[in-house]
Amino acid sequence: MYLDRQTPLARALFPRTQRCPVLFPLLPLLALSCSFTLNAQQQAPAKTATTSEEEQLERLVVSVQQQAKPWLSSVAAVSRLELDASPALDIAALLKQMPGLQADQRANFAQDSRISLRGFGSRSSFGVRGIEVLFDGIPWSTSDGQSQPSSIPFEQLSAVEVLRGPFAALYGNAAGGVLTLQSNAPIAGASVQSQQSSDYRQHSLQAGDGQTELYLKTLDHDGYRAHNSAEKRQAALRSSYQFDSVALNFRYDWSDDPLLEDPLGLTKAEFERDPNQTAAVATLFNSRKSSAQRQLSMTLTPDDHNWQVSAWQGERDITQFLSFSGDGPTAAGGVVALTRHYRGLKAQQLLQWNNWQHQFVAQLEENTDQRQGYVNLRGIAGDLRRDESGKVQNSEIAWQSEYQTDLLWALHLGSRLSRIKFKVEDFFIRPGNPDDGGQSSEQLAAFALGASYPLTEQLHFYVSSGRGFETPTLTEMAYQPNGSGLNLALKPARNRQLDLGLKWLQQHTQASLDWFYIQSRDELVVAQSLGGRTSYRNAAKTQRTGAEVWLLHRFSEKLELQWSSTLLDASFKADSSAGNNLPGVARVQHQLGLSYAPFASPFWQLSSQLSYRGKLWIDDNNSMAADSATLWDLKSSWQTGWRQTNWSWWLAIDNLTNQDYAGAVVVNQANGRSFEPGTPRQFQLGFRVQLLTD
Questions:
Q1: Is 3 a member of any domain?
Q2: Going by C-beta distance under 8 Å and a sequence separation of 6 or more, which residues neighbour residue 547?
């Protein structure tokens, strides 16, 4: 039975659900930062509908640095993808064409899709780890490095960029890379969008005057398996104000997921017998999750874009029923109730001196978790088994410099210093259940150095190297592999990276070839996963070598091809797992997309995408693997205008051949339920009507 938030227990579990986050505590700091002009420049404007074909290839990416830089001469592996208007159900659907990135669709909204970049993030049992997520320049990751991108309004997105390699270590607590999501400009008018299939219904509304926009969305999902339904609600309000010489951008995001059922993974025998079935313990304990998130953010940018100040504050509430009781005297319970408060302030300054350009960044972040655990009485919360408060504080400064000559070769270097503190207070101390609180702190440094050289006007070579780090998240420290209490033995992971690459840019073709080598020590990996609860450990040594290929070619205004391939050898180099591959990481990935638009007015486009993902090992011992999978998706879209309205229709078929495959695996699952079935063949029909104002 679903936990109604209006019951006394629900009010106890969600004491602040209806409270909106406010930024009043940060406003004095925001004003002070403005007065000292401690920030950098605004993100490049989003692409408009009138952008020419040549401009689409030449516009610069690397907007993670909040400044326009030519893609060809950049010293990092970076990819950009322009997004169309058709909505996506999850973040993985937007990212599957990106080289180096593995987007595993779990078809389970209770756990979110797993995103990994060059193997970093594959340890995540839910949400995103090891990758810094930015939405319009605002960190969507907490101070300890965890992120929940499912709360981002996908219909507002215009483009996505992925930064890989050593320079990613200069942006937040992430070892794998940076994922930058950019929204389109507020609409002037109103837009209604609807998409549905036999399994789900998704509707959204956007209305604005070109300066302020309101966004509303609902999603109801019946699920492909029993006990797999989901209900999601989202809203966003954003506005931009122009003063004498400064622009203020304001944004408020709200999401509420009252019911996200969790069917759990299957054993290999169960998966091969019937991939659409549900684990028996999922219905026995009514495993499910509900969550709510509210975030307020503001950004100040001057007209000359020489500085920028950003501030944000939010709150996230989660109640999760796991698939076991958790009634032991030292157990943490089978029901998790978590309330997280977080806030941050970021200031950047850009300075130019002759051919040198310097960027300085200062950032303060804090998040506090109130975590309780209750006995799971087969779907009903029982006695208290855990009560604690955890706090993470992170302060960091970063610096980057670039030297650019008239001959187009460039030198780029940077560093980041970070101090992060963890503190947990235990309020559930009983005979036989000792104080499990504790604290730790780390002072860490990252740096990167790179150079780019033009071999020809169209072909550039780059090389970069650096050292980075990644601390465990508070959630990863929550459980020990053996015993109870906080896992204070977890240490930060440290890595060394080397990247070599070629970039080629002509009028109708953009291509890149990247080779990388990464050596890590104390990498954070899964120790054990049981019943939805995951504990972690440090691996002695790991190594990654690989290559990434990306190609975008326009044969004509009507025909376009996009291809990406990733080859990745990620393995343990020490301890008992030495020589084995990292679980959950595919050695090979290929994506091939083709789009054809025979008519310009009314616009009609046919597109096809073929994706291949290699097998996934389920544990450190490489005892068993999920088979490789090849998926074929088709889509037809049509757009036209009539008077002051724009009309769009689309029909999509995902997994055309209806292949049974594992969308993801649960790494080191203790009872063998490691296989998470992917989405079967699905027909989707959608439309969008936009009313434009003068």
A1: no
A2: 513, 514, 515, 516, 566, 567
